[in-house]
Amino acid sequence: MRRNLRRLVLSPGGGLAVLLLLLAGCGGEAPTAARVIVTFDGLEVDQLRIEGLVEDVARFSLDVPVRAGPALTSGADVVVIFGDSFGEPEVEFVVGGFQGGQQVGVGSSRVRLQRQQLVTVAVALAASAPCPSGAHDCGGACYLDDDVDHCGLGCVACPAAPAHGHPTCAGGSCRLSCDAGYVECPDACADLASDGANCGRCGHPCGAGEVCQQGECQTTPCPAGQQWCDGQCVSSFDVSRCGTCTTVCPGPVSGAATGSPACTAGTCELTCNPGTATTCSPANGGKACVDAQTDPQFCGTCTTQCPAGQTCAGGSCTSVCAPGMSACPYVGCVNLTSDGGSCNGCTSGCSFAGDNKCDHGACASSCSGGRTQCGSYPPYSCADLQRDPAHCGTCSRKCADSEICVGGSCATFIWASGCWECGNGNPYSTCCVVAGKTVCKQAAGCP
Questions:
Q1: Which pLDDT tens digit goes with each residue over 392-413?
Q2: What is the pLDDT of residues 308-360, one digit of tens each?
Q3: Between β-strands 403-406 and 409-415, what pairing exists: parallel, antiparallel or unpaired?
Q4: Which residues in the chain show pLDDT less than 70?
Q5: How far apart, in whole angstroms, are the C-alpha atoms of residue 151 and residue 202?
Q6: Is the dihedral of CA 305, 306, 307, 308 positive or negative?
């Protein structure tokens, strides 16, 4: 029996079109009302009914939504169930992917169907697809043609726009668009009616002592102590317009609790609070308000930094116990929360029997909370070996007065009045608060 090859091309209809090649007997009776169920990636998308054959070509259509993104899924499955009316035809499935009205991938698989047979046809679609109209490809992804971060075929990021403007992408090129009421001038979006650098037209600056009013340069109309900004006279001592209309005075890098910005005769200054009355210029820039009598990084003068482990008292560097440690007569620096001989006080040691262990600052019969009993004889210490400077890592290791215990290791530190001093002209960039005190250390991690 001669067999004819017939091709049926289905319209994409905005989705994924399915193309079928049917091999049908020339003289056989046309199948009618055969039910076809098609699924895509396991999701049933449509139920079809073949109404008959026209010149041995079955007529029906199917749309499968294209997945979001610029690329179609590779290896998608199309599952088809044919009813009894088809007999056992040989069918070639050809799946074509469409996006933006263009065919982007074709794959095929040939199988022989049996009645009521469930057939999975694996179709390898294109790994990437052309972008739809109004978009272009950048590194395998589609972006709109007016995307300012991926402009043109070069996929360039348009530069930031000046004040009163924003970047645009048109015709594959970056452009500047100014807000309403502003005109594009070189490197600026200008209000020609009031812009002193572009008065009346671009590139026409007003002279000294003149302002731009209604597009004309005129003598400053403001009284002494004021300046013309944004069409009005404002104070020349305003911290948001100090000396010029665009100069904003910064506050102290030491924080708002130490002082506030000030504008004096058109120059930015600081007004420091009484407790932090000294103005210093830190290494990292800006200005700070400090107490030179107590600040360990500006001790006595703006250039005196106390060495590791020393704090500032009366404007001079002095050695003290590390944070969490207390100075006790005859024994030196001890941890009053764990030391059996000085439990919660230099003279309040635990007994030699019974509650003979210092646990969290109180005498107890045993150590709690994962603390380790240290000492060869009572009274004993209950130590956190990960952070106790008196027993760091092991019961027998005591950190120096210039060290804290971090993760069972002794680490050198410097004292600071605030975290802003960490790494500011010193290599100790990590800020820690230990026992309520601010310190700086070099490596990451705090007790």
A1: 999 999 999 999 999 999 999 9
A2: 999 999 999 999 999 999 999 999 999 999 999 999 999 999 999 889 999 99
A3: antiparallel
A4: 1-130, 220, 231
A5: 27
A6: negative
Q: What is the rounded CA–CA span in Å between residue 128 and residue 14?
A: 18
Residues whose CB is less than 8 angstroms from the CB of residue 316 and which lie 6 or more positions away in sequence, other chains included: 299, 300
**How many Å apart are CA 126 and CA 41, to the nearest integer?**
16
* Residue 229 located in a structural domain: no
Residues 82 and 68 both lie in one domain:
yes
CB 301 within 8 A of CB 307: no
Same domain, 344 and 316: yes
Q: Are residues 260 and 145 part of one domain?
A: no
Q: Enumerate residues 6+ apart whose C-beta is below 8 A from 235.
A: 225, 226, 227, 241
Assigned token pair, 243: 């000396």
What are the backbone dihedrals phi and psi of residue 419, each rounded to the nearest 5 degrees, phi first? Answer: -65, -20
Q: Cβ distance 366 to 357 under 8 Å?
A: yes
What's the residue count for the chain? Answer: 447
- Are residues 425 and 330 both part of a single domain? yes
- pTM (2 d.p.): 0.52
In a domain? residue 101: yes
The total of other beta-carbon atoms located within 10 Å of residue 156's CB is: 16
Task: State whether residue 421 is helix, strand or coil.
Answer: helix
Joined together, the tokens standing for residue 357 give 């262990």
pLDDT for 231: 66
